[in-house]
Amino acid sequence: MNFQLLLDSTSSLIIIYNGKTKKLSAKIAGYRNKKVNLNLPENSYIFLLKFKPEVFYLLTEGNIEIYKNKLTAFPDIRIPDSEISDEEIINTVTDYFERKRFDFSLVKNYFTEAIELINNKNGIFKAEEFVAKAGVSVRQFQREFKKITGFSPKEFSSIVRINSLTTELVKENVSLRDIFFNFGFYDQAHFNKEFKKITGANPSLFESRQKLIRYLNLLK
Fold first, then answer.
1. Domains in the chain: how many in total?
2. Rounded to whole angstroms, how far apart are CA atoms 38 and 14?
3. Which carries the bigger pLDDT value, residue 113 or residue 34?
4. What angle do CA 163, 164, 168 make, to 5 degrees?
5. Is 38 exposed, middle or buried (0-12, 13-18, 19+ CB in 10 A)?
6. Cβ atoms of 62 and 100 closer than 8 Å
7. The pLDDT value given to residue 218
8. Does one domain contain both 11 and 95?
9. Distances in Å between the alpha carbon of 98 and those of 112, 164, 199?
10. pTM of the model
11. For the segment 78-116, what is each residue's pLDDT rounded down to a tens digit?
12. Strand-strand pairing, 45-51 and 11-18
């Protein structure tokens, strides 16, 4: 059983049930600029909880590089019994984070505003326009952004943009050309390159594959 974590703008906490050992474990998937493979035996399953970039930064006390493109054991969350129910797993994780205290004053306000703007606009973001309104220099903004996310604003925006537009590819009667124009791409070659970099497939193949999956699901 091969589970692949693609490029993403978030980091993740993964609770893994190993079908071979019958044990549960918690792992952290750090920020990624390449795919990470998770190989599990049959009858395994996972729970995945995504972190906002600023939460992951504070959770790791700023040491995000340690977790880059890795799956790392996270012993802080202890799950004692492999027979634990799904609800008990959720409660265990929830209890851990409710006890955890994050000092959000360590994260600049303009950073959280930028992240919210990038997500709300599906990755269509111009740093120069933002910093002019935020009252910070481009260099200061870029430095703070990469310190917390691991990505430059441009890289982060590109990942958000591609992940956002993939949902459009499975819709009926939607032109691929219209999609990449709507998401701010004006060059087909640039779009194809960015899409394949993040998803691992060219847009037309991804579109066909996702529509086939949706069709098969409708047959069930």
1. 2
2. 11
3. 113
4. 110
5. middle
6. no
7. 45
8. yes
9. 21, 30, 34
10. 0.81
11. 887 667 888 888 888 889 998 988 999 999 999 999 999
12. antiparallel
- Report which of 207, 196, 132, 128 is spatially closest to residue 158, judged by C-alpha positions: 196
Query: What span, in angstroms and rounded, lies between the C-alpha atoms of 78 and 46?
Result: 16
Residues for the chain: how many in total? Answer: 220
Residue 191's domain comprises 166-220
Helix (H, G, I), strand (E, B) or coil at 48: strand
The answer to the question of residue 122 being in a domain is no
Q: In the predicted model, what is the mean pLDDT of residues 21-41?
A: 87
**What one-letter code names the amino acid at 43?**
N
Residue whose token pair is 């955890």: 100
Among 177, 185, 196, 146, CA closest to 7: 196
pLDDT over threshold 60, residue 160: yes
| Other CB atoms within 10 Å distance of the CB of residue 145 | 24
Rg (CA), the chain: 19
The pLDDT value recorded for residue 216 is 46
In whole angstroms, what is the distance from residue 56 CA to residue 12 CA? Answer: 8
